[in-house]
Amino acid sequence: EVPRLKTLKAARPKQTDSAALMQWRDDIYEAVQNRLKDEPVAHWDTLLPAHGIWCGVVNDYAAEGVDSVAGRYPFEAFRTTYDRVASGGTWVVEDAAGNTEIAPAERDFFLSRQVVAWVDVPLVKAGRLLAILCVVQTQPHTWGSREIDLVEQTAERLWAAVARARAEAGLRESEERLRIALEAGRMGTYRLDLATGEQQWSDGQYEIFGLTRGVDAPSRELFLSLVHPDDHHRIAFTAEDIRTPGTYLDSEFRIIRPDGELRWIIAHALAVFGPDGRPAELIGVAIHRLFAGRI
User: How many Cβ atoms sit within 10 Å of the Cβ of residue 66?
Assistant: First the structure.
């Protein structure tokens, strides 16, 4: 794949003491986090326009007085970078002008944009190059081992932050899809702690039963008060009914909502067992059948 590169350009502190270098690392991390909080820090993509292959620096953080290099460029402008870090090793350049490893045209491209010295830290997973964090100097610079270590530490923190953000975004997306599916199916979900009796209801569960979150606290007593008196036997279960892990409890019953509407409900619950081998909770779904009347 052809990458979109994210570049970080930051001024190195004049001091060489540990405190200053640590602050420099934290400043880099904070700058990237603030700038890219709504977008992955390193995103690789393939751009295939009508003529040729391109790559782009999606955006960057530049110290005051340093021009941004964000933009779209021919992929060959980053060919050496891509080849050099694709295996996962950190690439350190102290002076691009005298570095013969870089192709002349590529070297001229970097120098024209004040990219003179840099540390590139790649993220490679399963043999695939996913991202690069690049810290750039606008003048030749001899990178010390402590500086390189700090850039690598910063990269590790950023990759971890990106992974968490993507996982959270994926979870939110999954939850939203589930919410839409449940709403479309006229379904609600619930959880019952068998030891404490505590219940947790989804918004759909509240809607089905005609209750209000924050006003009506879900409980066994409240639930039973809404079940039609003639159907209580349909929802009765004992410990004998859930002796085996993975046991499902299925029932069909009527409820009378506070507004007087009669609804038929189909409920499916799964018994979840705790570490002690005893049933710990019921997790289930309630489905509103499309048959209604009024009492």
Answer: 18
Residue 193's DSSP bridge partners are: 281
Residues whose CB is less than 8 angstroms from the CB of residue 216 and which lie 6 or more positions away in sequence, other chains included: 206, 222
Contacts of 149 (CB under 8 A, 6+ apart): none
Burial of 113 (0-12, 13-18, 19+ CB in 10 A): buried
Residue of 268, 250, 276, 286 whose CA lies nearest to 195: 276
**pLDDT higher than threshold 50 for residue 42:** no
* pLDDT, tens digit (0-9, with 9 covering 90-100), for 143-165: 888 888 888 888 887 777 767 77
- 152 Cβ contact partners less than 8 Å away, ≥ 6 residues apart: 90, 121
Q: At what angle do helices 18-35 and 145-184 cross, to 10 degrees?
A: 30
> In angstroms, rounded to a whole number, what is the distance separating the alpha carbons of residues 40 and 51?
28
Output DSSP code: residue 43.
-
Task: Find out whether 75 and 83 touch, Cβ atoms under 8 Å.
Answer: no
Given a cut of 80, whether residue 139 has pLDDT beyond it is yes
pTM of the model: 0.50
